[in-house]
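Structure representation.

___
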Amino acid sequence: MEAIKKTLKDNAAMRWLVLVLVSTLLFSTYWFQDFFGSLKGLMDSELGINSEEFGRMLGMTTIANIFGMIIVGGIILDKWGIRIAGLAFGGLATLGAAISAMAAAGFFGDDKSVMLTWMIIGRVMFGSGLEVVCVVATRTIVKWFKGYELALAMAINMGFGRLGSALGLAISLDIGGGAVSPSVTFAAALIGISLLMFVIYLFFDIKLDKQIGAGSIEGADDEEFKFSDLIKLMTNKSFVFIALLCVSFYAAVFPFIQYAPDLLVNKFGFSYALPEAGNFQLFGSNSIGTASIYILLFIFGLAFSMVPSKMRSFPAKVVSIVIIGALFGAFVYSLKDVFSVWLVNGPKTASLIPMGTILFTPIFGSYVDKNGKAASLMILGSLLLIFAHLSLSVFQSELLGYFGLLSLGVAFSLVPAAMWPSVAKIVAENRLGTAYASMFTVQNWGLGLFFWGIGALLNAVNPSVIKITEDFRAKFEAAGLSKVEIAEKIDALKLSDQIPPFDYTIPILVLVLCGVISIFLSFMLKKSDREQGYGLENPSNG
């Protein structure tokens, strides 16, 4: 009997090495996507970029995807494979990030309009590669882990992305040392490094393809994209409801995360600067110390959600939870002074939203697999979304604000854990690629509108704040102060209330409307599921 030929992916160490190499792409692109949220106040005080201009820059990140770049990327991925798609779109994201970094450093000129224009051009190019890079990473993991630890690998891969978002928000100000340019340069450099990691991966990919044979390369069995598939999807009311739910829900989450640090500073008096008591140094660096804490939180999050599920007996599950919980409790207690300061710092507190998804998403995903109730859980997630934004807009209670952020983190885990598996029940497997590409494309319409719209609305409802700030800026510029000196002066005026805080009430109330729409769409989805019989309320393994 002929021995079964072993390939690289049959080696566990090689699979996990590949996971790390590829997941760095997600880590760096999520970092660059979200890190600007912690710099909003600094971009205003140092560069004079107001809320509308800030929102415009973020919103234009989605412009290429609004007009179908994700679908184009999917076609390229299907036709030419992981290697060409990864290099092309990873390179596009890297080039866009580099242009943004050069613009922030004044390479194209020191005038605000010039800097903003080139930063927008960079963000457009970055956004053109962003979503396709995520699909490339997912396809690569399927290629290497199918038949092995696929669910665990996907959870860890997404965890890398959330960790990138959290760290980008948490330490970009520390890295910049009170200036915008170093933070942008560092974020851009991360994408360049991750692209080099992907190039290293390609050598293993080429060898694997030689081992498994040309007939099995990439996704040769996958059916190519057809425009007729879009027509079939658009006439399926369950798919239409879940696609619109995707838009309304994510439009209330991702844009909010970008503005959350500034909201916490302006509404509840949180700080941008981190007091000395909130620093944790490692190798003499605050940034490395902070990053190490987040990495440990990342590991604990994965351990809580993954280890107990691997235990066969109930007592073993309980013991594993107790042990991990005790270690986590000791970790938090040892850093209680640091965390107490972090929880009144805008960027640090906002960064805990994506960190929470690392823990909760796998748990909720497992619940949906075993118990179903996906449509009902989407209704619950939408209710939590409404509570979160009401807590952070209408009410003035800091404690209620913390509960709002917590409920937002739970909703951010709950709805995706129920939504994405539901798509696989509604749509035939040979059209899933088209379905996901269509959903991401429509989602980007909502993201672009709300990234920009919140900033524009924030300007519109705070005209006096903008005028006072610009008057002071003009005075300091006339005195010949540098951008950094102007930023320091304006920040001091904000702390002394000579420049009043922004009122975020109306912009965040608009996001409550997204939650209401999400509830309506969730109910309609549940109703159409009863009519069409997709079994969204049934267990995935039942």
